[in-house]
Specification:
The complex is a heterodimer of chains A (371) and B (434).
Chain A (H helix, E strand, L loop, with lengths): L6 H17 L2 H8 L8 H9 L18 H13 L6 H15 L2 H13 L4 E4 L15 E2 L3 E10 L6 E8 L2 E8 L5 E5 L9 E14 L5 H37 L1 E2 L2 E2 L4 H29 L5 H31 L6 H14 L3 H17 L1
Parallel strand pairs in A: 1-4
Antiparallel strand pairs in A: 2-3, 3-7, 4-5, 5-7, 6-7, 8-9
Chain B lengths: L5 H8 L2 H4 L15 H9 L8 H9 L2 H17 L18 H11 L10 H14 L2 H12 L5 E4 L15 E5 L2 E12 L6 E7 L10 E7 L5 E5 L9 E12 L3 E2 L5 H10 L13 H9 L14 H29 L11 H18 L18 H12 L6 H12 L22
Parallel strand pairs in B: 1-4
Antiparallel strand pairs in B: 2-3, 3-7, 4-5, 5-8, 6-7
The chains are: A alpha+beta (371), B alpha+beta (434).
Chain lengths: 371, 434
C-alpha cells in the first residue's frame, strides 16, 4: 500500500512553498490584479523556469527535468495555494501535454525545450462562445495549412506565443499548432473574473498552422489533453482550497465577537469542518488521479473526472465560506479572500465546467461497467 | 462530548439482520483473498467466501446458533494466530504493527465470517483491560476473550449522557472491598449476549464532571443487572438498555484509579480509530443499477438518462470514492509506521448523509410505489427502505454529525472550544434539563 507522496516529493513541495511565499506573495499577485496592462508576473515566470518547473515533466532529451507527473502535481498544489499569476497551467498542463501526447518528434524538438527554458508560453484554444463545446459545434476551420475562425475565451491567450487550437477540417476535428505572433492572428484582451490571469479573444484569418496529431482525431486528443489537465488542475484547486481554509481558521481564532473568538461558535466550526471534509474528499480523489496520470493507467478518464468534480466543488465551497467567515472584511478589495474566489471560478471553468465533468464521470462509469 | 457509541454503528450494520441485505453488495466484482488467508479461512475452513448462498445460510441461523457459530469462528481464528494481531505476545497476540491487522480485516471482510459479536470487546474493551489492570486480572479475562469464550460490551452512554458522555450519572459507592452500582446505561450494543462489560460510573459527584468518574469491569450476569432490548425507530432491536440495581463489583475489577475513569475512557475511544465501518447499505453502484430500470420523472426514458439524477450520481461517486481512497491514505500511513492522519475522521460525516440521500432518491424515484418496503415487492428486497430508516440513527450513533464536526474543528483545525458551563463546578451542582 502506497498512497501518498514520497519524501523527495514532499521536499519539493516545501521548496516550492517557500519560493512562492516569497515570489508570489499577495503583493505580487495584486500587482498583476491592479495593472490592466499586465498579463502575468514576468519575474515569477523567469524564476519558475530557472527552478525547472516548466520542464518538470518534460523528458530530458527535450530539455526538461524528466521527473514525472507526480512532481507536477506537487508543484500544482503550491501554485494553486499561492494564486500564482503565471500562465503555468496553459503552458504546462495543456500546451506541453498536448505536444507530448500527440506531437511528432520534430514538433516536440521545436517546442518542448523552449517551454522548459521559459522561452515559450503556450495556450489551449477550444471554446468559441457560451456553453460547453462539442465536437459538432466546432467552427474554426483548418484547410491543411491555414486556420480561420474565432476562439473566445482563450486562457492566457493574451500572453501566449503559441496555441494548440481545436479546429475542424474535411476529416473531422483536428488539433492544430499555431504561432500567435503572425499577421493572421488578431488578439483582443478580455476582462475576466480573475484578472490575475490573462485571457483573450483570438481571431484567425488564414493564419499559418500545422496539424498536431492525426487528422480527424482532434476531439479524442482534446479529451485526452483535458483529462490530463483536469488531474493537474485539481491540485491547484486543492492548494487554493487549503489556503482558504487556513485563512478562515486563522481569522476565526483571532476575530472576537460577543467576547469570544468566533471560531468557538459551532456555526463557524461546522462551516470549517465542512470545508475540511470537502478538501479531504477532493485530495483523496486527486491522489488517485495523480496515480492514474503518472502511470498512464486506463483508469485516468474516470479518476480525472472524479478528481476534477471534487476539486471544483471544494474550491467553490472553501472560497465562498472563507469570505463568509471573514464577514465584512472578507468583502473588501484589500483582504485576499476575493483572489481565491476569483481563481476558484477560473479554474472550475478552465478545463470544462463542473456539470460537464460530472456528466463525464457518470458516462465513464457507464463505459467502465459496460466493458 | 460523546463518542462512546461509535462502534455501535459498525456492529449494527454487520448484524445478522442487515447481513441479509448484503446479497446485492456481493454482485460487485469478486476479489481473491491472499493465499495464506484463503488457506486459513477457507480451505480449513473457518468461514465461507461471501456468496448469496452463504448469506442465505447465515440468515437462517437463529440468534443462538449464530452466536455459537461466532464463538466457534473466534476460537479457530485465535488458534490460527489471527486474533489479537497487534497485541503483545504475553496477551496471546503477535505484536505486529497495525497494518497487519488492517490487511487481515480487509481479507476477512470478503468472507461471510461471523466476527461481529467480538468487534467491540476485542477492539475496545479488552485493550482497555490490558492497559489498566494487574496480571491476575489480565490472566482471568484476556485469553478467554481472545478465544471467543467470553463476549464483552461497552457501557458508556446514558439517557442523560449522550453527546456529553462525561455527564454519566450511574453511581458507584464503596462498600468494604466492593462497589455498589445503581443507575442506567443505554444504547449498549450486544449487552444481551455479553458476559462482561466495561462500565463508566460516577464515584464522586463533589468534584468536576470529568474528575469524578471511575471505570470498572462488570459481570453482565451478576445479580441486579437487567438488560432490555431497545425497539428502534427502524423496527430492529440491535441495542439495549442496561439497568443496575445494587450490583456489587469487587474493587479488584476497577480499571485505573478512582476518579481517573475519563482518562481510561479516552484510551477505549482511541482504539475506535481502526474500527472504521465498511459498507453502510446501498451506495452509488446500487442506485446506478437501479436507475437503469426505472422511468425518469419526465416520463421520457430511464432515470439514468435524467440530467439532474446524473449530476447527483456524480456527487455520490466522488464522495464514495473519496472516502474509500482516504482509507487508503490511512493504510499508507499505517504501513509506514505513522499514526493515521485526521483523514480517517471524515467517514461518518460523509457516509450517513450520503446513505440517506441515496435511499431517499431511490424511494422517491418510484413515485407512490416507493412507499412499499415489503421485500417481496420492493427494489433490492427493500434495502433502500432499510437504509432510509437506519440512516437517521447512523447520523447520531458514534457521535452526532454535529459532534463529529466539532471534533474536526477543534482537534484537526485547532479552533477554540466552546465556553463551558461545567468548568470548575462540582458535578452535583451542574444544571441538568430533561
Amino acid at each position: 500500500m502506497n498512497f501518498d507522496f514520497s519524501d523527495d516529493q514532499k521536499a519539493l513541495k516545501d521548496q516550492a512553498r517557500k519560493f512562492l511565499a516569497d515570489k508570489s506573495s499577495s503583493k505580487a499577485v495584486r500587482a498583476v490584479l491592479n495593472d490592466d496592462a499586465a498579463f502575468f508576473d514576468a519575474a515569477l515566470w523567469k524564476g519558475v523556469a530557472e527552478l525547472g518547473w516548466l520542464g518538470a515533466a518534460i523528458p530530458e532529451e527535450h530539455g526538461g527535468l524528466g521527473l514525472g507527473r507526480l512532481e507536477l502535481c506537487v508543484l500544482a498544489e503550491e501554485i494553486g495555494r499561492a494564486v500564482a499569476p503565471i500562465p503555468f497551467s496553459s503552458t504546462v498542463y495543456f500546451f506541453a501535454e498536448a505536444l507530448m501526447l500527440a506531437g511528432a518528434e520534430a514538433q516536440k524538438r521545436d517546442h518542448l525545450p523552449k517551454i522548459a527554458a521559459g522561452e515559450r508560453i503556450g495556450c489551449f484554444a477550444l471554446s468559441e462562445g457560451p456553453g460547453a463545446p462539442a465536437e459538432a459545434s466546432i467552427e474554426a476551420k483548418f484547410d491543411g495549412a491555414t486556420l480561420s475562425g474565432v476562439k473566445i475565451p482563450v486562457t492566457d491567450g493574451d500572453c501566449a506565443d503559441w496555441a494548440v487550437v481545436v479546429a475542424k477540417e474535411a476529416a473531422g476535428v483536428s488539433l492544430v499548432l499555431v504561432d500567435l505572433n503572425q499577421a493572421g492572428v488578431a488578439r483582443e484582451t478580455l476582462k475576466t473574473i480573475d484578472p490575475t490571469r490573462g485571457a483573450a479573444k483570438l481571431t484567425f484569418t488564414n493564419a499559418k498552422a500545422e496539424r498536431l496529431g492525426a487528422a480527424g482525431q482532434g476531439w479524442a486528443l482534446a479529451e485526452a489533453v483535458l483529462d490530463r489537465a483536469a488531474a493537474l488542475i485539481a491540485f491547484e484547486q486543492i492548494g487554493g482550497s487549503q489556503a482558504c481554509l487556513e485563512m478562515a481558521i486563522d481569522y476565526a481564532k483571532n476575530r472576537y465577537a460577543f467576547s469570544r473568538p468566533i471560531g468557538s461558535f459551532q456555526g463557524i466550526k461546522h462551516k470549517l469542518a465542512d470545508m475540511y471534509v470537502a478538501i479531504e474528499v477532493a485530495r483523496s480523489n486527486a491522489y488517485y488521479g495523480a496515480w492514474a496520470l503518472s502511470t498512464e493507467a486506463a483508469e485516468l478518464p474516470f479518476a480525472a473526472a472524479a478528481a476534477r468534480a471534487a476539486a471544483s466543488d471544494a474550491y467553490y465551497l472553501c472560497a465562498k465560506e472563507n469570505i463568509q467567515t471573514h464577514g465584512g472584511m472578507g468583502f473588501t478589495w484589500e483582504v485576499d479572500c476575493h483572489l481565491f474566489f476569483r481563481r476558484a471560478k477560473l479554474l472550475a471553468l478552465q478545463a470544462g465546467s463542473p456539470a460537464v465533468w460530472k456528466e463525464k464521470l457518470v458516462k465513464r462509469l457507464e463505459q467502465r461497467n459496460a466493458a | 462530548m460523546r463518542r462512546g457509541a461509535r462502534s455501535i454503528v459498525w456492529v449494527a450494520f454487520k448484524s445478522r439482520r442487515f447481513k441479509g441485505r448484503r446479497i446485492w453488495i456481493s454482485t460487485t466484482r469478486p476479489r481473491k483473498p491472499s493465499f495464506a488467508l484463503r488457506r486459513a479461512l477457507f480451505s480449513k475452513p473457518i468461514a465461507s467466501p461471501k456468496s448469496a448462498e452463504a448469506e442465505r445460510l447465515s440468515r437462517k441461523l437463529s440468534p443462538k446458533d449464530y452466536l455459537a457459530a461466532a464463538k466457534d469462528y473466534q476460537r479457530k481464528k485465535a488458534e490460527a494466530g489471527f486474533a489479537g494481531i497487534t497485541w503483545a505476545k504475553e496477551q496471546g497476540g503477535r505484536a505486529l504493527p497495525p497494518i497487519y491487522a488492517v490487511i487481515f480485516n480487509s481479507e476477512e471482510a470478503k468472507f461471510d465470517a461471523p466476527a461481529h459479536p467480538f468487534s467491540i470487546g476485542l477492539g475496545m474493551c479488552v485493550p482497555t483491560v490490558i492497559a489498566f489492570s494487574d496480571e491476575a486480572t489480565k490472566d482471568r479475562y484476556v485469553a478467554k476473550a481472545l478465544r471467543g469464550d467470553e463476549i464483552w460490551c461497552q457501557l458508556f452512554s446514558e439517557p442523560g449522557a449522550g453527546s456529553d458522555v462525561a455527564a454519566s450519572k450511574t453511581k458507584a459507592v464503596k462498600d468494604g472491598g466492593d462497589w455498589i452500582i445503581n443507575g442506567q446505561k443505554v444504547w449498549t450494543t450486544g449487552a444481551h449476549f455479553s458476559d462482561f462489560g466495561i462500565l463508566l460510573v460516577r464515584t464522586n459527584p463533589d468534584v468536576e464532571k470529568h474528575k469524578g468518574l471511575t471505570m470498572f469491569i462488570v459481570d453482565m450476569k451478576a445479580p441486579g443487572v437487567e438488560v432490555r432490548q431497545i425497539h428502534q425507530a427502524s423496527g430492529g432491536r440491535d441495542f439495549n438498555e442496561v439497568y443496575f440495581t445494587d450490583v456489587r463489583i469487587p474493587d479488584q475489577n476497577r480499571l485505573g484509579e478512582p476518579g481517573m475513569g475519563w482518562n481510561v475512557a479516552l484510551v477505549t475511544l482511541m482504539n475506535e480509530r481502526l474500527a472504521v465501518g465498511g459498507s453502510y447499505g446501498p451506495d452509488y453502484k446500487e442506485i446506478f443499477e437501479f436507475a437503469k430500470g426505472i422511468a425518469a420523472p419526465s416520463g421520457e426514458g430511464a432515470l439514468i438518462k435524467d440530467e439532474a439524477f446524473r449530476q447527483k450520481l456524480a456527487d455520490w461517486i466522488v464522495r464514495a470514492e473519496g472516502y474509500k481512497l482516504a482509507k487508503f491514505r490511512t493504510m499508507t500511513a499505517l504501513s509506514r509506521g505513522q499514526t493515521p492522519g485526521p483523514e480517517s475522521s471524515i467517514g461518518k460525516v460523509i457516509n450517513a448523509n450520503q446513505m440517506m440521500d441515496i435511499a431517499n432518491t431511490a424511494i422517491e424515484a418510484q413515485d407512490l410505489y416507493g412507499i412499499i418496503d415489503d421485500p417481496a415487492y420492493a427494489a433490492l428486497e427493500g434495502a433502500f427502505h432499510q437504509s432510509y430508516m437506519f440512516a437517521p440513527g447512523l447520523r447520531i450513533a458514534g457521535g452526532t454529525d454535529e459532534i463529529l464536526k466539532n471534533i474536526i474543528a477543534e482537534r484537526v483545525l485547532g479552533l477554540p472550544q466552546e465556553p463551558r458551563a461545567d468548568k470548575g463546578v462540582a458535578f452535583k451542582d451542574l444544571p441538568s434539563g430533561r
